[in-house]
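Researcher: Here's the sequence for the chain we discussed earlier.
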Amino acid sequence: MTIQFFCPSCNDIIGFPDKHAGRRARCTNCGQFFIIPSENYKKPKKVKLQEEKGDPLPGFYRAVFVDNWKLFFDSENVTSLAFVIAVVCFKFFTSGSPCCAYVTYYAVWGWLFGFYLNIIYETAFEIDKLPEINLGTSITFLWYIIKPLFLFSITLAVVLLPCIIRYIILKEQGLSLYDILHSRLLQVLFISGLFLFPIAILTTSVGQTFTMFRPDYLLGPVLKAFFPYSVTVLLLIAAAYLEIETTQFTGAGLPTTAGHLAMNFAVQVIAIFAMRSIGLFHRHYNCYLAW
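Model: Thanks. This is the structure I predict for it:
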């Protein structure tokens, strides 16, 4: 259930899931902090101005590398973890089917992307457990797949926009694909775009709008908390690299199949760490976020 209410400062309408009632949040339109009310259209309590500022919350590295392990041993997360395991197994064993390989691929990653977005959102709002599984009806289930794919794709396109524009310019100049891909500026723009992806997907997940994709909103917190932010980037790189290197079901012997499946599970463990680290970045360095 969603609780709707008006911002106590700019009167913009806001909605939060009812499980966040009583927690602190911020209006994405004007930046006002408030306490999420427990009833629809109840006036939220403003958080005083002096509480909006402050120093970063300590303990980021411990939360990422130590506390995150607790998720995998918490009985409250059994259902979520079991479903992730089932989804990975489904992807693993059906990937070789010529009739449904692509459908399976996009359906699984659409659901996983939605799961990742929920991890970021709930971690940012101090919920230290994995998101609950909600499959919905046949129509909403399809939406749960399409929407995350769309959000991830648009977010990635935004951060890579300078790279895309440079690619088009080089293409119009008649350069070969080899020369284009070996353009030093294009490579720098591509790497820079990927480096900004975690803060961009944090904005998409928590801010839930594309209107805050401003350079100062994205670059400010990255520059002020560069090393903690780099941890999120490295975890994402590790998950992406391991996913590229994984092998799906090939019909090989049991030991080989078990090893390949274990690699697929390892991808999801690192991915959960990466998404949690993005949410923890919001939690610990919220004072640097302009939105």
